[in-house]
Predict the 3D structure of the following.
Amino acid sequence: MAVSLPNGIVLALATAYAAPIAVTAATNGSEAVLTVANALVAGDYVEFSSGWSRANGRVFRVKAPTTTTIVAEALDTTSTSLFPIGSGVGTIRKINSWTQITQIMGCTSSGGEPQYQTYSFLEQDFDSQIPTTTSAQSLALEIADDPSLAGYQALKNASQGRNPTALRATLPAGGFILYNGVFAFDETPSLTKGSLMAVKAGMALQGRPVRYIA
């Protein structure tokens, strides 16, 4: 058993991407092997655009690269019903650079709750439920106002582009959480007497987060 505090988490925004690389094959297994014209190294991060809906729009770490393949670390595609054979092709984009978002006062997550379908048959006098999906998930950031900061400008640019952008959370106890989503950014600071001026950013996730413990 372990507990931890969020103190010391570092958030960084992807601010430069390489050109997309075609994924011509993707295997089913405990970790998917992607066939690519490879110029990647172990530890690189890539955004995966895939025919597999459960992999599409997510960010993965590169593992065990060869001249023609990479492993998408922690992408478990064992189930051929969830990941149909031959349907995982698409593209990857390497993240070339990250910009730290500094002066973060708070980061909260909302959504992601399981949703249920309630049903009952005519002969029954009770309702039953089965899980369906999870609700849309988003992150909300509150940042002490300083337009001169690189992270402030990176958030502003990501918001204006409205394209999916990766966010990496480096955890103080080790490991990472990788998000991918569309950003919104409000440059108008809060103006409460006696409190720090702060601006707000929001991220609408476009795929499930990916977590690495080390």
